[in-house]
Fold this protein.
Amino acid sequence: MANVSVYNIEGKEVGSVELNDAIFGVEINEHLVHMAVVNQLANNRQGTQSAKTRSEVSGGGRKPWRQKGTGHARQGSIRAPQWKGGGVVFAPKPRDYSFKMNKKEKRIALFSSLTSKVNDKKLIVLDNFNLDEAKTKKFVKVMDNLKVTKALVVLEGDNKNVVLSGRNIPTVKVLPINGINTYDIMKYETLVCTKAAIEKLQEVYA
């Protein structure tokens, strides 16, 4: 089992925590990581785009001119796709982009993304992350102390002050441990977790 250092919000090392190899030391499956990211992005798509085909555009019920003898190319309707105001050839229609992944596949993808952060030394564990008030300046100072900019911060629960302090920073996202996912782990450069969140994660997936 790997050991990683535990820091306080001042950026000082205050101890260490042991990581479960079944979660933070697995063989990385890049295919399932990619699949999990695509799955989350696809499931978030609204799929409400719509345009009209030539059969749905109003007007154009008769031929604009006779078939032969005019010198023009033959035309059947002024609502054909080549006409201004005509229908769209392969018009997009509302559809569902979502697809399912097996629970086991999702779990392997999550463990692979966590393992990659440990291997790249991009996992920072905090002894706790509590702010006495919701101030973005205080949150930024903690990030500066840890020397991170683009980070996913994972807490053991809903900490209102931390969530409110971090939501104005475009390069940071704050999540409770039950909201952790492969896409966000891979999107942000550094993963910052509280020690309690690590313990809770290992307890759930042990």
Q: What stands out?
A: Residues 48-96 form one domain. The radius of gyration is 27 Å.
